[in-house]
Design a protein that fits this description.
Layout: H1 3-6, H2 15-42, H3 50-55, H4 70-116, H5 134-151, H6 154-174, H7 191-200, H8 215-233, H9 238-259, H10 272-295, H11 303-309, H12 312-321, H13 324-337, H14 343-364
Helix pairs in contact: 2-4, 2-10, 2-11, 2-12, 2-14, 4-5, 4-8, 4-10, 5-8, 6-8, 8-10, 9-10, 13-14
Length: about 375
């Protein structure tokens, strides 16, 4: 059994982890529409500054926006929770049962990912996509991190994370490939894109996002979260943990900025510099949530996020199956017509609240979808 897990004290549930997970999911399950509707009350869409529009949309290639944080933050939080859950699982059932749960979770995440973006439910092989979704990137990163958590020390986990970042960078920068030269990193021509074309073939999603080789980066992002989780499980006092998190986040931002001069920050290929840049912001967000919720005890404001965070898979999958926006529109369309400039906000809130109330009901009934 991994001695690093045995020696760490058992902690109570850290609410900031659930809250941060819920905060992340909030934006993609209707929160973005609500936020933009609120902003629209004060600044018309055609008058909103360019920097705001940049931050609220995905960057086409090089660069990083606030909206680009959603996916890496999700992977990071998965890693943060792993030291807590794995310690309990190993104590309760030993390694064999833990391995079985790992396999089960990877398979379920992969299937959910294919349902969400892989067109699995269409049952049409011509449009089926094998690897094209956030949940599948989580499955890849989770598998690597889980094996390391069970079998090696924290130090080795950290060294593997560094090795993945450096190794991925060296492959992308130094290895030539048919049709391209070493170091070329363009949307339709780079080593990761070439490997996806070879491995996934006609089951590739056809986008400029890459998946197979980029799994090295996915694993590094999850492991970065694992490092933060180890810190939160340690016997250091809470304020020291918050300071270490803040310092670590700043260091990651600095390293990502420097590394980006040589291997650009590109989310589409999950570049090593992007892992550190997004990881830095993720760590700082965790430090902020941890300080406010678990140290200062300011918990009431986080309740809406906790409700989402404790059923994050449902929050992610449900809008892809159930048209909550349409349901919300049908409920308030008549009212919205009479509210003038507030009509758009009411409609956005209605679509979000239908989903949120479902998640709240599930929480009250202690119904949680865990994979």
């Amino acid at each position: 059994m991994n001695s690093s897990i045995q020696q760490e004290p058992t902690s109570q549930r850290i609410m900031s982890i659930d809250a941060l997970r819920g905060f992340d999911m909030f934006w993609i399950c209707g929160g973005r529409n609500v936020f933009l509707a609120i902003v629209g009350l004060f600044i018309a869409e055609n008058q909103q500054p360019a920097w705001f529009k940049y931050q609220m949309g995905h960057v086409s290639w090089i660069g990083f926006s606030a909206w680009d944080m959603i996916m890496p933050l999700f992977l990071f939080i998965v890693g943060v929770a792993m030291p807590f859950s794995f310690a309990k699982r190993i104590e309760a059932g030993g390694k064999t049962k833990v391995y079985l749960k790992i396999i089960r979770r990877v398979i379920l995440l992969w299937i959910f990912g294919m349902i969400a973006q892989g067109n699995l439910l269409k049952a049409d092989m011509s449009v089926l996509r094998l690897y094209s979704n956030t949940l599948q990137s989580i499955a890849s990163g989770y598998l690597v991190a889980a094996i390391l958590l069970i079998n090696v020390s924290i130090r080795t986990q950290f060294l593997v994370m560094v090795g993945l970042l450096v190794g991925y960078c060296m492959l992308m920068v130094l290895v030539p490939f048919p049709g391209g030269v070493a170091g070329i990193i363009e949307p339709t021509m780079n080593l990761a894109r070439y490997i996806d074309d070879i491995v996934l073939g006609r089951f590739d999603d056809g986008s400029t996002y890459t998946w197979v080789l980029s799994s090295m980066g996915f694993a590094a992002t999850v492991l970065l979260g694992v490092m933060a989780g180890h810190l939160l499980r340690s016997n250091k006092d809470q304020k020291t943990k918050a300071r270490w998190l803040a310092g670590g986040g700043i260091c990651c931002l600095a390293l990502g900025l420097i590394w980006g001069q040589f291997f650009p920050v590109i989310k589409h290929i999950w570049s090593s510099s992007m892992v550190l840049w997004a990881g830095g912001w993720s760590i700082l967000l965790l430090a902020l949530f941890y300080y406010l919720i678990d140290i200062l005890g300011w918990r009431r404001w986080s309740f809406p996020f906790v409700v989402i965070g404790m059923n994050a898979i449902v929050a992610y999958m449900a809008p892809r199956i159930i048209p909550f926006g349409t349901i919300g529109d049908n409920l308030v369309a008549g009212l919205a017509k009479h509210l003038g400039m507030f009509g758009g906000l009411v409609k956005a809130l209605a679509g979000f609240m239908v989903l949120w109330l479902m998640l709240w009901y599930m929480q009250r009934k202690k119904t949680f979808l865990k994979v």
